[in-house]
Design a protein that fits this description.
Elements: H1 3-20, H2 25-42, H3 53-57, E1 62-71, E2 77-88, E3 94-100, H4 106-122, E4 129-134, H5 143-157, E5 166-169, H6 176-190, H7 210-227, E6 237-240, H8 245-256, E7 260-266, E8 269-272, H9 280-290, H10 299-302, E9 307-310, E10 321-323, H11 333-341, E11 346-348, H12 357-365, E12 369-371, H13 373-376, H14 379-393, H15 399-421, E13 422-423, E14 426-427, H16 429-447
Parallel strand pairs: 3-4, 3-5, 6-7, 6-10, 10-11, 11-12
Antiparallel strand pairs: 1-2, 2-4, 7-8, 8-9, 13-14
Helix pairs in contact: 1-2, 2-4, 2-16, 4-16, 5-6, 7-8, 7-14, 7-15, 8-9, 11-12, 14-15, 15-16
Bound molecules: NADPH dihydro-nicotinamide-adenine-dinucleotide phosphate (NDP) and 2-oxoglutaric acid.
NADPH dihydro-nicotinamide-adenine-dinucleotide phosphate is lined by residues 97, 170-173, 214, 242-246, 266-267, 294, 325-327, 330, 350-352, 377, 380.
Length: 451
Amino acid sequence: MQNIDVEKRIDEFMTWVEKRNPNEPEFLQAVKEVATTVIPYILTNEDYDGMKLLERMTEPERVIIFRVVWQDDQHEVQVNRGYRVQMNSAIGQYKGGLRFDPSVNLSVMKFLAFEQVFKNSLTTLPMGGAKGGSDFDPVGKSDPEIMRFCQAFMTELAKHIGPNLDVPAGDIGVGAREVGYLFGQYKRIRNEFTGVLTGKGLAYGGSLIRPEATGYGVVYFCEQMLRTIQQEIKGKIFTVSGFGNVAWGVIKKIDQLGGKVVTISGLDGYIYDADGISGEKIDYLLTLRNSGNNRVEDYLLKYPEAIFHAGKKPWEVKCDVAIPSATQNELDLEDAKTLVENGCICITEAANMPCTLEAINYFIDHKILFSPGKASNAGGVATSGLEMTQNSIRMNWTADEVDAKLKAIMVNIHHLCQEYGQEADYVNYVKGANIAGFVKVADAMLAQGLV
Ligand SMILES: NC(=O)C1=CN([C@@H]2O[C@H](COP(=O)(O)OP(=O)(O)OC[C@H]3O[C@@H](n4cnc5c(N)ncnc54)[C@H](OP(=O)(O)O)[C@@H]3O)[C@@H](O)[C@H]2O)C=CC1
Ligand SMILES: O=C(O)CCC(=O)C(=O)O
């Protein structure tokens, strides 16, 4: 196949998707990243070519958009919008988190659901892909307001989910507290106690290690990447963004393995702590997060020797490894150039799509180790899958058992990326993750007829 034909097929496909999904930049970005790596593969495989598999995969099986009405502490009626995008159920029931953030819209929901399909496939567990959430802003809300919002949200969502249909979990703005309120409302409405959500509290069906799982999985994956160039976590300097659930798990595991994390960040700017964020400083991240203030600057209240850089991103700090752990498109081409100039050897995505396409291409062109979130952050949803298994067999595994399974899954995802992404002298993890994720879903779809 001539290169020119491949480029033409990618262009034709993207034109088709753009026409069907105007004004959805995040969704189109996620699709483009997949299309540029998967279409060349489809064209070499006669079982796939002509079956419109990517066309089908970019069309959600179902999109549910609903009104959420609740009352704030001042008795004022508030109206928000709720979403659940059930993207693909070819390999298992829909699975994916819920995000509560003012930036939530249909484009963001669809990009996250699309990524989730490939990610869940990579875990090798039987989970389809979905994502949901609301434009509700949890910042500054009282606990009773959060509870009332979660109950109102679940009152509609409960009609569309179930332990054998669709199993949501947390994401930005949705942690253990919110999952608890959502679970309680589902149980009340449906009159059943089932594993309908993951990320549950330990007292009512949660799994040990799920809170840490996304971050731990990212670091296990990073360890494998570094091993390909005979390097290790120990002794390396890491820059991390965010100070939420995922950043916390990442920092905890890096600290355990002897690396040093020198930054965290929030919407207000970033913290540089030259001594490293370790020991009790890691626990302090939970206090900061639970304060609900969403100000990373407050780190200085306890550790005044650190430095706060208002309105800046942590990618200007010299590091060996960068782990973006906050949100989509938080690392752009300029940041990528700065990281590479400063000697960074590895970027492991922890958030979903934190690097722009231009940044990713720059890393790949410069043969810097780079892993996409759908591969390196898959440990969170994989451990959700392990929570579902424990709920089904009505047993709880120990922390060591869950952690060992999580590590094995991350090592396996790394193998899959190598198998499908190995180029002459470089592992293209983007290509590897996309093709490996695609193959399982595509085979299941072909086996099930025109779905
Ligand atoms: N939780 C999970 O299991 C998984 C999460 N992910 C992904 O990891 C990322 C982080 O999620 P999680 O830690 O759970 O969420 P949290 O809500 O716990 O934390 C989110 C963090 O990201 C920061 N953030 C959010 N929006 C922005 C923004 N626009 N600009 C800069 N910083 C921002 C927040 O800072 P601030 O408080 O200042 O807003 C906060 O530090 C997301 O991309 C999520 O999709 C991926 C796999 C699984
Ligand atoms: O645990 C889950 O089901 C979903 C986690 C998630 O939202 C993600 O992987 O982005």
